Amino acid sequence: MGIAVTPLKRPIHIGKRLAKNRFVIQPMECGDANLRGGFSEDSLRRYEKLLHGGAGMVVMESVTLQLESRARKTQLLLDVNDPDNRDQWERFVSQKRMHAPDTLLVVQLNHSGELSDESFSRRVCVKPLPGFGGTLIDADYIEQTIASYVEASHFLAQIGVDGVDLKFCHGYLGSQLLRPFNDRCWKYGGSFENRARFAYELCEKVRRAIPDEKFLIGAKVSVYDEMPGGQGHAGPNSLIIDPEESIRLCKGLEARGASFFIESLGNAGLGWQLMCPDHSCPGIVSQHMTAAKLLRQALRPETTVICGGLSLLGKGGALPGMAAEKSSLFALSNSAIEQGDFDMIALGRQSFADPALPAKYAAGKEQDIHWCTCCNRCGTLLGRQAHAGCAVYDPYYRTVYHDLTTK
Asked: Which residues contact 282 (CB under 8 A, 6 or more apart)?
């Protein structure tokens, strides 16, 4: 008797590419590059495990295009004007192509904006947010940022990366421009058309620079922030959630060449629970699934919608009022995909706990999976500018966490 081919195991077209299953590895920022932003032994080891873990697509973390403004002291850098950095990326992608040819590799490009750490970099902002602030940027700065994204995307296409994820979530620069709080009178603020201009121009210019439709363009989007005037809210100071603009954004990006969207919620600078539900707030899982379904209903059938925020589900039992066997990651995801609520699932903290989960699931070895406990020790490591990973199952990160928290 063979292993059942559940929806999670079925291949799916993402644009002109084929993913072998419905598992996506989230772009998880781990702060484990070297001090110049290059690949360290820790980052190379981490991606080797992820690329061999059996997921249909791996989206690389929040990659900065400049050292001047960044959120992590050891954030992974892509600098196309640095020969050494270019060479590191070329060697990394070449190794990936050799050893994991059937896994799609996408790189998330990002600018930290007001979430840049002032202790080692320059904080910039669209409009000063209480508690953050930074140097106010102008239209020229945005246009130079777009140019750097396009140049980086072109380089990645040349060396064999399958696509880019343009980050419009979690309170970073792309999100800062989109939120209604950006009511400043300038080219990229005020009306929705102006606030979406950065996203739309960026997508258009990347597509124009790389006309090959096999090169994927996608976006990770916070459907709403839960902050006054945040992305997906009703006005510049409103706490009322209104995802209409987020849906409109995704439809506009879709029309300009985007073929996939990773659903998310929240703002990293204001709290992690909305982004990363834990046992204190299990109901947030339903918010992620609802947000993904809103996107799925609004977008073309051929556009891929990926649901995040599901690591809490584990082997079941985390959702009050629901039987464990019906509330597990696999049971709920298979049901939602079968019903057309979304197309794929994105694993974040769960990919730290067990990067081989997709392969174990495909082989019918669910009993061998290390389930994420949602202790958020990985978040503590990242927040303290340490290399981040699973401090429960991985002895290396367990030691790092112990040393960091017992000083």
From this structure: 312, 318, 319, 320
